[in-house]
Amino acid sequence: MSDLTKLTLADTRKGLANKEFTSVEVTEAYLGAIEQAKSLNAYVSVTGDRAVEMAKASDEKLAKGEGGSLEGVPLGIKDLFATKGAHTQAASHILDGFKPEYESTVTSNLWRDGAVMLGKLNMDEFAMGSSNETSYYGPVINPYRAKGSNKDLVPGGSSGGSASAVSAWLCAGATATDTGGSIRQPAAFTGTVGIKPTYGRCSRWGIVAFASSLDQAGPITRTVEDSALMLNSMAGFDTMDSTSADIAVPDFAAAVERGVKGLTIGVPKEYRMDGMPDEIEKLWADGLEWLKAEGAQVRDISLPHTKYALPAYYIVAPAEASSNLARYDGVKYGLRESGRDITEMYENTRASGFGREVKRRVMIGTYVLSAGYYDAYYKRAQKVRTLIKQDFEKVFADGIDAILTPATPSAAFGVNDQDMAADPVKMYLNDIFTVTVNMAGLPGIAVPAGQDSAGLPLGLQVIGKPFDEETLFAAGRVIEKSRGMDFAPERWW
Amino acid sequence: MTLVDTRTPNPAYFIGGATGDWEVIIGMEVHAQVISESKLFSGASTQFGNPPNANVSFVDAAMPGMLPVINEECVRQAVRTGLGLKAKINKHSVFDRKNYFYPDQPPGYQISQYLDPIVGEGKVLLDMGEDGEVEIGIERLHLETDAGKLIHDQDPNSSFVDLNRAGVALMEIVSKPDLRSSEEAKAYLSKLRTILRYLGTCDGNMEQGSMRADINVSVRKPGGEFGTRCEIKNVNSVRFAGQAIEFEARRQIDILEDGGVIDQETRLYDPKTGETRSMRSKEDAQDYRYFPEPDLLPLEFDDAFIEHLAKDLPELPDEKRHRLMETFGLTHYDASILVMDRANADFFEEVAEGRDGKLCANWVINELFGRLNKEGHDVASSPVSAKQLGEIVDLISSDAISGKIAKDLFEIVWTEGGDPAKIVEDRGMKQVTDTGAIEAVVDEIIANNPDQVEKVKNKPGLLGWFVGQVMKQTQGKANPQAVNQILKDKLGLD
Fold this sequence. Notes:
The complex is a heterodimer.
Chain A: H1 9-17, H2 23-36, E1 43-46, H3 48-63, E2 74-78, H4 105-112, E3 116-121, H5 160-167, E4 173-178, H6 184-190, E5 193-196, E6 216-221, H7 224-234, H8 252-255, E7 264-268, H9 278-293, E8 297-301, H10 309-324, H11 342-353, H12 356-369, H13 375-397, E9 402-406, H14 418-422, H15 424-428, H16 435-440, E10 444-451, E11 457-464, H17 469-482
Parallel strand pairs in A: 2-3, 2-4, 7-8, 7-9
Antiparallel strand pairs in A: 1-3, 4-6, 5-6, 5-10, 9-11, 10-11
Helix pairs in contact in A: 2-3, 5-6, 7-17, 10-12, 10-13
Chain B: E1 15-17, E2 20-33, H1 72-84, E3 92-93, E4 96-99, E5 109-112, E6 122-127, E7 133-145, E8 149-151, E9 160-162, E10 169-175, H2 182-199, E11 211-220, E12 230-235, H3 238-257, E13 265-270, E14 275-281, E15 291-292, E16 299-300, H4 303-311, H5 317-328, H6 332-339, H7 342-352, H8 357-374, H9 386-397, H10 403-416, H11 420-426, H12 435-448, H13 450-458, H14 463-473, H15 480-491
Parallel strand pairs in B: 12-13
Antiparallel strand pairs in B: 1-2, 2-10, 2-11, 3-16, 4-5, 4-15, 6-7, 7-10, 8-9, 11-12, 13-14
Helix pairs in contact in B: 2-3, 5-6, 5-7, 7-8, 7-9, 9-10, 12-14, 12-15, 14-15
């Protein structure tokens, strides 16, 4: 039997349905691969026994020709999703030992459709980071390395564990979340596909909150079709999340091969940054050519408020985070460091429980919401947010169907990059192309499209209209078919 | 909020000081617990008296990833209350987070409404007796979550947390600074409580903490500029509110008259000492970092939603008082007493239906309520039902019994129960109106008491003695008017 971990999610489904192999076999193959890939540090907790149990239950259904759309398919789950009785710590020290008594809506949907949980995936602490280096459990390593180099590279973040695990064949697909680019940037760094759906498409219930008005769950997979299949299961209206959208979920998988004929693709001039590497320029141009070749029209557009998106994001997201993270106080669950009184207990617990980046953002957020600063920062950032949203609304109203941009300004960088360690803003700039999408609540997909000179993956991003993920899958599939290369890291781990 | 003085200074309320008269300015923020089955943003029960932490959902405990979902009944209750306060209902309102750390507040923030409350300006009318009706402005009403409770006496080294109340819906009802005396403040609290109880939106039980008041007090020279205010937190009885205001006004006057200044601060009232004491100064005030709650959409509803609630709104105390005065010819005073409690008014209406309203009011207020108060009952547990009291009134109206006998009858019904008419019949309590029978008794008494007959001619006051004799002989059953008339005739008095 060939290596079951190398199959796409779609092929795994087919093979299971056709009884070419069992879910237990695929699951054990992945558990074995995970065991051998500890150096990637993609998982923070492997739930092997539970995985095999779930696989057995799936096999019983499959044997009877029954089962859901993901029956028997082994998945990895980002540590941000509450999974009942299992490790759920947002990769933070402050949630030490926390195992919830509830299951997030998104994972419940996946289990309802028959998926198997392999374990919980590493991530930046509380989803704050772009390199997966802020995790309490240590950095995740990108399975890709530059040609001829042994240097460890980051997988991006915050869903670095998800991206690395999918790229290195440690799960058939993974859940992830995206607040400013946390699905799309790691997907681009690891040669995988990641879609951040429209805000409200997936329920946030049971996902540890970072920035409530921006957080959105989505899949990271090896192909566009796989993402469509996974999102079909993850998405849906949920009365438990007041911000989830009461809009029917279309058959995303059916849209994958729809093509781009007749679509008008916008090319925003503001995304052409000074000093952008030639290889990114070329990638972008290639992408436009591929879409044109398949019958799309390409038009230059302007999104004038783009340059304000990142600064505004770094006000709104930390503001919400400072409040969302107030509940981690040592009183109810997780870590408690004792103190002489309640205030000292709070201080000791939070000082020891949160990492540097989380503390930085809690402080920024507290500051921008403070009396006397609220109008100058938070309120203005919200105004900027409205303007960014209007930029997109205008171009969509002018006949643009989707927008093509690079996913990231560069390929993956090294672990413990001194430049970025010295200047957090350099790290924040990783999200320059992705953050506007969160600010506007739009869907965005990152699809691997090419390589840099060192052979590292580069991705393109397609941005769509609200609740039009179907066009993103169609356009993403065209890029996937046209790029003329496979994305598979050379195994070194 | 801009402070506007809507009142004309009333010398009756002035407080005398060494430098002359002072006027006290009072505004209130009343926290009223909403009557609802479940909490404002979770499905947990609101039932009072359950064991600690029995009424706690994952949302209330602020478990990671939990999200609030608005309880529509609480929204309806807030709108009903707004309508009852004749207030502007805001079809668009916004929930905000009020951030602060305390173990009784699990998420580290209270969900409240800051800039855009669900209810805007309204009013409450106070009946101040001789001073007439006073209108107190309502600034706003908003919905917010209550906090839990810390328990300090279970362990020497740590405190425990009971989250049963955490997340229960509160309405914060903010008055304008329109109150000018402790009497008005007490009347305002009582009236507000009456309105909330009529509406069924808050049980108004201050002892249980389901209604509590933060009272802002300042003093000034009559008609002058508003002074610096102090806020007295969490006052939990109408009586304490009055005492706290009296003390606080005097404290501020003494400071000002000694040349001092009032520090804007939060104070606590201690019922044991009757004093207020400083809790924290303005400098220590927390920065709550309000911002719109991103887990909730703005709260929106349409006119139909409001109209539907308005249609089903019960008759409120002011309207009920007018109607009782018009329908039953009651005095303002009697009607006011009856409407203070909806159950009392309902009881009265049941008694008065098809009967003499004034007579019924007299019996309900003086006899029944008097007795109920004395024995610590309320109308719900009254031993005499509305039906029974109505029948007693019927017996009086039809001259079957006298008012005096009626009191005996009331006593029997109170202690023994039973059908009043049957009791009167069985025990021979029926009034004697047969003039022949009365005349026979009168004749006998006149014949047996010649001395008294002689005296009464010069001293008509002695007639009472004769009436007494007749009543004695008839065991009180003789119709008093008939007895009087016959005696006068026979004794030759006019």
